[in-house]
């Protein structure tokens, strides 16, 4: 048995490599691919924080697209086809190299494993399925339930999350 009976992970940047989408389309983006990817992620986070502070929630998919548009404008632009491919790739991000073995080890030790994420439920389900983590994730919790992004206290106060992780 593992030390704890339940583990809850963030999805983007913890399990899923947020820069893998731009890496796949590096040639289409051009020499500023790494810069675009960095700006995209930073702006995506800034949009979630700002929207939460304003009390003006929008879904994560929309903010991801808006952040990509901002990043693309900063880096000289991308074609509509590349934009569509990048947004689709964001739902099929690569997992970090140690994720599968770590989650498999936790499951083998009898632990429950969940994701708590800013992502939309269908985006998260798509990412988990595309990465082959389906059998290693027991539950996916999305902030869409409370209409605010992390780090809003309401996210961590969701009763079903607290009930799920009670040891």
Protein architecture, described:
The protein has a 3-stranded parallel beta sheet, with helices on both faces. It folds into 2 domains: 81 residues, 3-Layer(aba) Sandwich (Rossmann fold); 73 residues, Orthogonal Bundle (DNA polymerase, domain 1), CATH 1.10.150.240. It is mainly alpha-helical and 167 residues long. Helix 3 packs across helix 4. Helix content is 53%, strand content 8%.
Question: What's the structural blueprint in terms of helices and strands?
Answer:
Elements: E1 6-9, H1 20-24, H2 26-29, H3 33-54, H4 60-74, H5 80-89, H6 99-108, E2 112-117, H7 121-131, E3 139-142, H8 153-156, H9 159-165
Helix pairs in contact: 3-4
CATH architecture identity of the largest domain: 3-Layer(aba) Sandwich
Q: Note poorly predicted spans.
A: none
- Arithmetic mean pLDDT: 92
Helix content: 40-55%
Give the C-level CATH assignment of the largest domain.
Alpha Beta
List keywords for this structure.
167 residues, mainly alpha, Rossmann fold, DNA polymerase, domain 1, 2 domains, 3-stranded parallel sheet, 3 strands
Briefly summarize what is shown.
The chain has 167 residues and is mainly α.
């Amino acid at each position: 048995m593992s030390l704890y009976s339940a583990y809850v992970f963030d999805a983007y940047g913890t399990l899923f490599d947020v820069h893998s989408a731009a890496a796949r389309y590096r040639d289409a983006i051009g020499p500023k691919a790494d810069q675009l990817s960095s700006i995209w992620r930073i702006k995506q986070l800034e949009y979630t924080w700002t929207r939460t502070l304003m009390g003006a929630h929008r879904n994560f998919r929309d903010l991801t697209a808006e952040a990509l548009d901002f990043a693309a404008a900063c880096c000289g632009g991308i074609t509509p086809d590349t934009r569509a491919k990048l947004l689709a790739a964001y739902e099929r991000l690569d997992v970090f190299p140690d994720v599968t073995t770590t989650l498999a080890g936790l499951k083998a030790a009898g632990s429950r494993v969940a994701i708590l994420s800013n992502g939309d439920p269908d985006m998260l389900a798509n990412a988990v399925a595309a990465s082959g983590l389906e059998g290693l994730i027991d539950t996916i919790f999305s902030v869409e339930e409370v209409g605010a992004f992390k780090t809003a206290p309401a996210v961590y106060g969701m009763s079903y999350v607290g009930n799920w992780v009670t040891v």
